[in-house]
Amino acid sequence: METVKNYIGGVWKESISGKTEDVIGPADGSVIGVVTDSVPADAEEAIAAAKKSFYTDRTWRDMAAVDRAAILFKVADLIDANAHDLAVTDTLDNGKPLREAEGDVADAAACFRYYAGLIDKPEGGIYDTNRGFGEMFNMTIKEPVGVCAQITPWNYPLLMSCWKLAPCLAAGNSLVFKPSSKAPLSTAKLFRLFEEAGVPAGTANLVLGSGSNVGNVFAESEDVDMITFTGSTRVGQGIARAAAGNLKKVGLELGGKSPVVIFDDADLEAAVEWVMLGIFFNAGQVCSATSRLIIQDGIHDAFIKRLAERASHITIGPGMENPDLGPVVSEDQMNKILGYIKAGIDEGAKLVCGGKRYTENGCDKGYYIEPTVFDNCTPDMKIVKEEIFGPVLSVLTFHTEQEAIDLANDTEYGLAGAVLTKDGARALRVTKELRAGITWINCDQPTYCQAPWGGYKKSGVGRELSIHGLDEYQETKQININLHPEAPVGWYEH
Ligand code: NAP
Ligand code: MG
After folding, report:
1. What is the pLDDT of residue 122?
2. How remote is the CA of residue 260 from the centroid of ligand 1, in Å?
3. Does the structure show a pLDDT above 90 at 130?
4. How far, in Å, is the centroid of ligand 2 from the Cα of 153?
5. Which ligand sits closest to the CA of 30?
6. Which CATH number fits domain 259-441: 3.30.365.10, 3.40.50.300, 3.40.309.10, 3.30.450.20?
7. H-helix or E-strand containing 273?
8. Catalytic residues
9. Is 308 exposed, middle or buried (0-12, 13-18, 19+ CB in 10 A)?
10. Per CATH, which fold does 3-254+459-479 belong to?
């Protein structure tokens, strides 16, 4: 297998360590690729290339916005042209069903198109500041932040890369990028497309390797002006601490333990389907997964009965066979999830369905977990408090609206939340009380690049996607213009 290389200063090259790392496919544990295994010196070389690109060459930064846009539209077209290959790559690397990977690729192209279209429509302001110094005109302009470092997780390998790369490039920054070592292959292919589309050498630099060897260097570097990270809260906290050294700008998209609140009057059949989407999509490895079902006592029994029935018919298998549920990303992750399931049983939650590794139909070598539902949960249980990041749902029951709100907000996270009820005023009332950045009424999970994405509390800092996402990668500068350029009068005459 050919080793997938770093892309630094416009050159594809192996790590100076000479070492490589196998990429494992979770469908059967086989080696599906080999990537170069970078060391801190490679990360430093990439940062130097990005710095030279931004501060010395200035090609991308100074390029007319319409020309930058044309290149990013080309990237989107190339993603479409390579859609099948990119989707298969993510399915093999991450494990997700092929149709989910195909959706990710379509969203990735849409994200590049959205930001390409946004570049030449800057949001400046003009302010009336006339007071004390004569007639002034004050306006703001937006500028790129400079050298950005970006680190992504493995759950949406290509799409998470695009959510970061598209606005960062659109704003005119230069960057260094580290994908998760658990699923790096589609991002490496995306960088090939950057080269083909004409993104200038040195603008976007790819470094393949571990968080401790590469990510850490990004976070600590004095030459990095901004770091954006998607991943776990624990690692995000470390990045925020490291970033304090030069007070680089920080964007963090972190974990979650999001609630879906269902009232007695909700449409039962529709609610079951939304709940399944909220916890079984991508095998529950979704930051915004609604992993806590908070359900009113009147509908509880009928709902759980139907959910267990539907979950028992979920098909499980390799992503390439397009089952309902693919494997989880790695053996480690599988064992971690099985550990949570054991904790749920030990703590006395009632196992309604699932609860085991799935090894039937030739799945014994892969990392499959049955769709799992725990009923009779209490707020102090580990499976209610901690992010499991697998197909495991914990169910809590409430009687009054206020109880539902209190349970929903009883978490250190604040990424997302859903409310299902036919009572429109109540839906809005409860949603307004949720301490979360992404909320859904009578649905669960739909996500669009036109709307802002991010969390409250320990789920993150800042927003991705939408106009807000572009703004994160820009500095705002105010310019004061004296319309009567004479000396100030009356200040030093006393
Ligand atoms: P993770 O373990 O935090 O890793 C995320 C990335 O950080 C990987 O590329 C990892 O590299 C790197 N990393 C690890 N240690 C580092 C360090 N000390 N310094 C710098 N970088 C370091 O998370 P994950 O397991 O990949 O992803 C799952 C988590 O991501 C979940 O908590 C999920 O909720 C969150 N997530 C959030 C969002 C959102 O939008 N809010 C979206 C998706 C996922 P290596 O693993 O290659 O060593
Ligand atoms: Mg993998």
Report:
1. 67
2. 24
3. no
4. 11
5. 2
6. 3.40.309.10
7. helix 268-280
8. 253, 287
9. middle
10. Aldehyde Dehydrogenase; Chain A, domain 1 (3.40.605)
